[in-house]
Amino acid sequence: MNVGVLYSRIRRDEKLLLSELRDRGHEVTKIDVRKERFGIHEPPAAFDGVDIVVDRCLATSRSRYVTRFVDAYDIPVVNEPETAAICADKARNSLALAEADVPTPATEITFTKEAALESIESFGYPCVLKPVIGSWGRLMAKIDSKDAAEAILEHKETLGHYEHKVFYIQEFVEKPGRDIRVVATDGEPVAAMARTSDHWLTNAARGAKTEAIDVSDEMADLVKRASDAVGGGLLGIDLMETGDSYTVHEVNHTVEFKALNEVSDVDVPAAVVDWLETRARNVEVTA
Ligand SMILES: Nc1ncnc2c1ncn2[C@@H]1O[C@H](COP(=O)(O)OP(=O)(O)O)[C@@H](O)[C@H]1O
Ligand SMILES: [Mg+2]
């Protein structure tokens, strides 16, 4: 197959994917989205002969638009535009999980700082304020007091971009110093790791200690339901342990897997390519 890879920067994750594809004799078409012009009628020539497209754009805006366009060109795309749109937006992400009855932290959104303060006061302290768009734990706040809440809300309202005018407020989950990342393909767990940190943010990108963990049946069931809730695909599901169970705080759509690949016995890029192959073949069969 010929796999189109949409990117703007080739990171370790993309390198792993590209070398796995090439090792298996697949053709790879690297498509730098910064250089292309995406017409509403015709695909850019770069897409000629491509059987399946994998979106690896870092920027959410690019990812969201480009998957829509590729889908309109009738080329299979991973992940699908609706999945990207849901996952790229924490508010939609939480709503989708709640609608599917997947346990997820209590969350509210508000559009003014006055309503946000009411929400924060009703959650109590600490609670969490997140940008609706973003990753790697950026611009997330754990709010410990009303003074802190007022200050951060004023900063956001005065200095924030458009997206920061939506206040996403969440209960603070007393997790055991770690959270869990599961990479899954259409809800089937590939591998999982725990991310441990002294800091409340436990993103691998922020230096959390990572270790492979087994996926229990309960985790696998939640992963499947969380994946279905956003339309499936190649996803990173984030869970926190709540003592006797789990809560899913988000599903990521352009999931990084280098950290997981390092700690896990599973060959993650190989599993991803196995899945891409079935996707492309299914598409050929039904076409
Ligand atoms: N409600 C919460 N309570 C406690 N910790 C949280 C909560 N939400 C997120 N975290 C911590 O912050 C990290 C980043 O949050 P997340 O919602 O996954 O955003 P990002 O998209 O930036 O990764 C999580 O991995 C987790 O460690
Ligand atoms: Mg996360």
Word description of this protein:
Strands 11-10-9-12-13 form a five-stranded antiparallel β-sheet, sandwiched between helices. It has a four-stranded parallel β-sheet with strand order 2-1-3-4, with helices on both faces. Strands 5-8-6-7 form a four-stranded antiparallel β-sheet, with helices on both faces. It has 287 residues and is α+β, with helices and mostly antiparallel strands. α1 (12-23) crosses α9 (268-286) and α5 (113-123) packs antiparallel against α6 (146-159). The chain folds into three domains: 2-86 and 275-286, Rossmann fold (3-Layer(aba) Sandwich), CATH 3.40.50; 106-171, ATP-grasp fold, A domain (Dna Ligase, domain 1, 2-Layer Sandwich); 174-267, ATP-grasp fold, B domain (D-amino Acid Aminotransferase, Chain A, domain 1), CATH 3.30.470. The chain is globular. The protein is built from nine helices and 13 strands. Residues 105, 128, 130, 134-137, 170-173, 175, 179, 200-203, 238, 249-250 line the site of adenosine-5'-diphosphate (ADP).
